[in-house]
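On to my pick:
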Amino acid sequence: MKQVFINLLKNAMEAMPKGGSVAVSASSPDARTLSVTIQDDGPGMPEEVLKRLGEPFYTTKEKGTGLGIMVSQKIVTEHLGTLDVASLPGQGTTVTVTLPVRDKTDI
C-alpha cells in the first residue's frame, strides 16, 4: 500500500509543475470500510485520458512509464479494495482508494 500512495501523491505533484495544493483525507463510510482521498488542484484530465488510465505503458508524461496507476490498481485490488479516479479539465483530479477494514478476528 505504501507504493500505491507514493505513486498517487507523485502523480498529483507532477500534475502541478508550477505549484498547487494536494489534499489527503481519510474517512470511514461505515465500520468495515476506509477511504483515502488524494485531491489536487492541477489541470485535470479530459474523458479520453481518464478512460485509458491503468493501461500498460499509457502515459501523458514526457518521462513516464505508464505503469504507476496500473501497478497501484493491481495492489489495491489484491487488498480487496477499489481505486477510483475523478477528473475534469480545469478542476483538478480526485483519487479515492477504498479498502476493507479488518480486525483481529478477520486474520
